[in-house]
User: Fold this.
Amino acid sequence: MDLEVSYNFFTNEHNFSLNGAAKHSGELGTSADGNLTRLDNALEKMPEKLNRLEEKLISTKEQLENAKEELKKPFEKADELKSKVLRLAELNKLLDMGEVEEREMTILCGRCKRGRLLTSATESMKKTTAMMSLTHCTLI
Assistant:
């Protein structure tokens, strides 16, 4: 195991790092006895940290196995999802048609003063069409 000591200019602190299979670090103080105690504490915490990490590894492996089992199961609501996605595409298409009509009206009448009036009338028509489509959707 290697011991590295460093100085951080930004925080004005001395730090240590014990490097082996894993890295364990801490902050050094001004007392030599205190620094030895800090190093001893870091060494004593290693087995506890190893146990905690091994438990976490076991838990993660269990979660992975559970996730693999879940992937094997068929999605129960696949048909419902498919129908809802198709209905959403239909509604989006209806809403987009209103926007296209609005752009065409603005382009055609953009040079005259009536262009603004026609645009706002088209917006109202678009909102009404969308509301009618949504109402139709809920009645079906």
Q: What stands out?
A: The helical segments are 32-72, 78-109, 114-139.
